[in-house]
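Entry 14. Ran structure prediction on the chain below.
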Amino acid sequence: MITKPERFMIVAATAEADHALTAFDAALLKAGIGNVNLVRLSSILPPGCKEENNINFPPGAFVPTAYGAICSETKGELISAAVGIGFSEDSFGVIMEHSGNCGAEAAKIKVGEMVRESFANRGLELKDIKIKSVELRVEKAGAAVAAVALW
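Output, structure tokens:
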């Protein structure tokens, strides 16, 4: 059983490689979450969770992660990924992610809209938003990933 995480880090990276899956792997490595097993989760940041810039995850650890990712092998295609966290004053946070064929700014705007909507849906007051986004113009095989990893 995974216990309630106490720390999180928000990351985003892109990478190129010979194949889409190895590009995704390289992007995860660049983001600092490439040597763990990501356990995909939905959208809630636990109350009291503190941000850290670099969590030293043990290799092979099961790491709860909310992420958006996209891979492409279409030369010239623009891909992006973004992730955002909405913070309340004294409650839990909400994580939203997006990936697609757009630029980093468009992905960032969409994530911000989704964070605001998710808070409105819950009747929570939004105190702050933190968003990271990246984009890549594909050369051979590319990947973009944006994630919130919890520990």
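Residues 7-150 form a domain with the Pyruvoyl-Dependent Histidine Decarboxylase; Chain B fold (CATH 3.50.20.10). Will compare against last week's run tomorrow.
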